[in-house]
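worker-03 picked up job from queue 'complexes'. Input manifest follows; two sequence lines, order preserved.
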Amino acid sequence: MNLDLPRSPSAILLTLLAAAALSPEVATTQATDSARIAQLERQMEAVSRELERMRLGQEVIVADSSVQGLGPAASRVYRAEQGVSLAGYGEVLYENYAAQAEDGVTSGPVDRFDALRAILYVGYKFNDRLLFNSEIEVEHADEIFLEFAYIDYQVADAWGIRAGLLLAPLGLVNELHEPTVWLGSERSLTESRIIPTTWRENGIGVFGGTDAVSWRVYVMNSLDAAGFNGAGLRGGRQKGSRALAEDLGVAARFDYVGTPGLIVGASAYAGETAHGRTDTSGQEIGGRTVIWEGHFDYKWRGWDLRALVAGATVQDVAELNQLNSLTGAAGIGSEMLGWYGQVGYDVLRASGSTHQLLPYVRHERIDTQRETATGFAANPANDARATLLGFAWKPVPQVVAKIDYQLHSNAANTGVDQFNFQLGWLF
Amino acid sequence: MRRAPLVLLLMVTVAAPATAVSQTLTQDEALALAFPGAQVERATAYLGDAELERARSLAGDDVSIESTVVSYYVARRAGETLGVAYFDVHRVRTLPEVLMVVVGPDREIRRLETIVFREPPEYRAPDGWLRLFQSRTLTPGLSLKGDIPNMTGATLTSGAVTQAVRRVLALHEVIDPLKTPES
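worker-03 finished. Artifact:
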């Protein structure tokens, strides 16, 4: 038998009131008007309580009681609603390159329109202490990656344990890489070549914080120096796929978050990266790599300000170059340095519009071969500068369209300017 | 030697004692937190079409108000009205959050408490950010374009909480639960 039951709170309210009014008991009662009014008031109170319970959820309304012999606080762990959390983000990027490089020679890069990223976030909350987080990414429309997948165990209010495929906690973009969060149609060079965003490795760590500070310390499988080259460390990411783990690295981060809108902090990573490989004499190579950075992010009254400086050192570079068959100016830099500063402002802030329109400018310098091994030269093209001028339009906070022009130059005079358009979303 | 950091970390984590974590508060707990020792009376307002429209207009274009049945809790101690608490439920990303919003007799925000937050904890609004709403009234400055800064990495929470506060203040203005009854 199908019962056509009302589903909306208002329909339930009306149905219950109608039922009460038509009830034979009510119809036949000899109660006075005041008694009937009192009865209706009680019924309305009961219905409104039921509505509130439906809206807020059972565990908010029910008075606390112990479960399985535990105290009230601990018992709530077992009563908390469990379930799946689903979300996602993505970006489409159009890149149009100048026909000529800064030295006037034909530039070379081909214009591209790329479905750069589409990510599905899936989480599952087992209870108030234990949850699973993951991102499954489709890159360039036909490559699939597991971007992160980890279990969090919240040991106490102030700290917890995290294990699985983790995002290295370095820089401003690596952990917060959704396109609506940062300005610019492309990530900065510093947070691509020195901090190899999006950088994720398998590991275990602890995380925590208070109202004023936030911190994380992870032990992860190390970068693989077999992917390093003169342009930086990006190729060293193992991305969690059958990762070599002969060498482990430590990544740590500390932020001050005590002023709303402001994040100031620093992070670092250290680990050997040769994973037991040997040089021609049979000696094991270390390849210790240290990456450090300091960052600043401030959002206030329409302003969006951001700055970051990052550096890296790599040991045993001559041996690693030999291992990677890198010669001349193609060798890995033993020292790298990059920084950028960025300013944006919402010009619609005072207009009353719910849209945001942020013109922005970013200036950046990077040198991935600031120092090289004896016998190796630096490629002047790796000593680069970039200036972005553009604007971002957000009709709602979860959708952004960005247009910018990038002025590129380098010490070899081979920089190629480009015009970009990016469409990004987050839900 | 290369595994020393991992061994140290495992020792720390295995030895870690489990203590209380931020969890779901019940309504009674939240009200007791906001109004210790006070007498709290529950009431419900039923909005007509005109009242609903007025509330929407006061809250602003980006704030949705759908329900015409609004429950609230008036707290009094020794004959003095301390404030009115509302429980607002809204979606952050895909999952709901329940906030307790306490409005003082002067129509200013007295307290904001996260009662339920189902999204991952890193998206939860920290207490320091929630305190920014203290003593605020329903003005244009009460927005992410105004005096409330967006939280980097938790923009959806920033928006959801700010909209919830505007919604509650608009409903409070329309319901006017502390008005003196007409004689």
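worker-03 released lock.
The longest helix of chain A spans residues 33-56.
The longest strand of chain A covers residues 356-372.
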